[in-house]
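step: validate -> pass
step: tokenize input -> pass
step: predict -> running
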Amino acid sequence: MKPARVRSSPVLLALLVAAVVLAGPVGGQPTAADHSSSPAQDDNQTEFAVTQGGECHQVEPIGRAWESVESFYGYETRSSRTTTDFQDNQVSNLLIFHGTEGYSLVVLHDEYGDAPGGGTATMEFVGLPESGEWVIEDDNHEDRDDVFLHRDTRSKIDWKWIENRTDGGVFRGLDTTDDLDLTVTPRFNERADAWGEWDWSGDQANRTEAWRLYTDRSSTVELDMNRSITITKGACDTAAPSAALAASSTSVATGESITLDAGETADDTDVEYQWDLDGDGEADRTSDTASITHEFESPGEYRIGVLVSDSNGNTNSSRLNVTVTDEATTTSSGSDGIGGDGGDGDSTTEATTTTSSEGPGLGVLAGIAALLSAALLLRRRI
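step: predict -> pass
step: emit ->
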């Protein structure tokens, strides 16, 4: 007996297709629609700017919509195991991560795996948002060597790591304040608190060679390892400040103090002034105030200038000419015998008078001669 054939029904097929569509992918994996609606894929995601030494870097946060920053960092057994794409041997990397719970600052020292050399670094964080928190302290175990000190909106961290391992941490909550103004001050190698004390420090084999910032998932910029950075929300401004330079005098003598003032520069809450005091185009002094004093050591014509940098890395400059004369010529003009007394000839008269006082005057001699002549006449009469 032949088995009965089961005929498919168009209605039944339609119901099965609808059920599959509504159920979604097997295993609960995120779909393309899930990604497009996530915060990390939002076209209106928060922008961040990192400024150092008058240069501003626009940062595009690294985002994984379905992932928390804890999962991204993958802290396990004293290292970050899942961020190897953002690690480099003997390099400290900095990035901003956008995940399921907002924006986080991620610090990654060195590289996990085949990476010889350890190291130590000290960093101070000032201006951390009050509603944020350090969600990862690498290392975080009972006998850890790292030191994490937190107080209000400030943190000081001493990191120490061995070869083939990483170190670092995660602060979550950069987006919890509208006026983010976070300063990070690094101290690498000799400037680190534990340099020379930590076993993997104190020599060339255990040095941090670079400090880098990820401006997006695949791009980095080299940061100055000896200068602080400032992290703010928003884009790097495109409007440069207007520089203006004035001097208390444009003609001075060597050793005489002159005041240089760039106070007419457009207002900014964080402006740096770089002063070119010898006219060679290079900065001789840097200040955060608009006015300085200076003394020139050598006479000559100087084309001095000031370069003004605002908190967004925009710059503008201004210059002026200053004539510097020799101090000896200015203060001892009478040393060459011309006009030393003001040009009225008194010094010549004084010299004549002084010379004549050394012997009897002509009038005295004439009187003596008259007396002698009278005495001779009187003697003849007698």
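step: describe -> The CA atoms of residues 92 and 109 lie 4 Å apart.
step: cleanup -> pass
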